[in-house]
DNA sequence: TCTTACATAGTAATCTTTATAATTAGTGTA
DNA sequence: TACACTAATTATAAAGATTACTATGTAAGA
């Protein structure tokens, strides 16, 4: 299941002339198998046991490479660290203001807004970004308990 | 014109028990009169002449206060500094990938997507954020000249 | 005017990310 | 398989943005 995506990703990297290393493989695996949206530090810590000598820079370098190849999407929310999402298919994100959890949801891609924005501003539009913010079910439950 | 918005903002701050200081007033004025989307450092530099002793921390402190009162919206784009937008009315932003310019544009508020996201994920939705990215007219002109 | 709590300045510290240089290790080719 | 070339990694320093902290200053109400 996940291995199919992983194979595809590895092949995609090879086609871009990117070499495979154990660290790179591990970071990629982590992104594919974990359905979370980890920060660079999350990944670093998660792999610390297997690669005690791995540098944080390696994580960042690889995330940059994955981004360039289009395997991974970087998301930045305000002050916190960037989060990285392995791109499977088009989807939007909803983010919990309380615990920071990120959940995917599907919605038809908003092509129209890009056309409208282009017409109004004269920009040549490349892409858009849409996120919804709120409180996730478990944080809602906690909050209603407290009060 | 701008002073009406400024007065309203000052009143709103007073109602929240926030004291008015010359620095605070100046930062607020800058945000209201400049229609740009400045970074904390932009503001700091712009007011350096009038307040040679002002601390960067003061700028950040005030921006935080303004945000808490809802006068200002913070926007963070990837790696760069946060930008701050004085909230006048609902609008979306389009951002130039080349020079970083931010332009406002109007589009009907996407209420539906909040409802859909809520239904799909169980989140209690608070707000959403939508941005369009591309190349602004002047950067387009420069790029076509070069090639 | 006096008082008090909030705001500011100045600086140190933190956190995330990038840059740099030296070493290590993939990968294609002989 | 061994070699050579070049990319990748490590380790560390550095940059940049933001926050924390403390002493001092000041706005605003009694």
Explain what the structure shows.
The structure is a homodimer of 147-residue chains. Chain A has 147 residues and is of the alpha+beta class. Chain A folds into 2 domains: 1-88, Winged helix-like DNA-binding domain superfamily/Winged helix DNA-binding domain (Arc Repressor Mutant, subunit A, Orthogonal Bundle), CATH 1.10.10.10; 89-147, Ferric-uptake regulator, C-terminal dimerisarion domain (Dna Ligase, domain 1, 2-Layer Sandwich). Chain A is built from 6 helices and 5 strands; from the N terminus they run H-H-H-H-E-E-E-E-H-E-H. Chain A has helices spanning 2-15, 22-33, 40-46, 56-69, 111-121, 137-146, and strands spanning 72-75, 83-86, 92-96, 102-105, 124-135. Chain A has a 3-stranded mixed sheet. A two-stranded antiparallel ribbon of chain A has the order 1-2. In chain A, strand 1 (72-75) and strand 2 form a beta hairpin. The longest helix of chain A is centred in the N-terminal third of the chain and has 14 residues, at 2-15. The first copy, chain A, is globular and about 45 Å long. Chain A starts with a helix and ends with a helix. The mean pLDDT of chain A is 88. Chain A binds a DNA duplex (30 and 30 nucleotides) through residues 17-21, 23-24, 39-41, 53-58, 60-62, 79-82.
Break the fold down into its secondary structure elements and pairings.
2 copies of one chain form a homodimer.
Chain A: H1 2-15, H2 22-33, H3 40-46, H4 56-69, E1 72-75, E2 83-86, E3 92-96, E4 102-105, H5 111-121, E5 124-135, H6 137-146
Parallel strand pairs in A: 3-5
Antiparallel strand pairs in A: 1-2, 3-4
Helix pairs in contact in A: 1-2, 2-4, 3-4
Chain A binds a DNA duplex (30 and 30 nucleotides) through residues 17-21, 23-24, 39-41, 53-58, 60-62, 79-82.
């Amino acid at each position: 299941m996940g291995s199919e995506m992983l194979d595809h990703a590895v092949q995609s990297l090879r086609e871009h002339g990117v070499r495979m290393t154990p660290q790179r493989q591990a970071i990629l695996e982590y992104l594919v198998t974990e359905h979370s949206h980890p920060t660079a530090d999350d990944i670093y810590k998660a792999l610390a046991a297997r690669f005690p000598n791995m540098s944080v820079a390696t994580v960042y370098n690889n995330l940059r490479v994955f981004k360039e190849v289009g395997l991974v999407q970087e998301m930045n929310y305000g002050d916190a660290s960037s989060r990285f999402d392995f791109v499977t298919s088009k989807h939007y994100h909803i983010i919990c203001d309380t615990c920071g959890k990120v959940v995917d949801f599907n919605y038809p891609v908003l092509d129209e807004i890009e056309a409208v924005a282009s017409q109004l501003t004269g920009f040549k539009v490349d892409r858009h970004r849409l996120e919804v913010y709120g409180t996730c079910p478990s944080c809602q439950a906690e909050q209603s308990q407290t009060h």
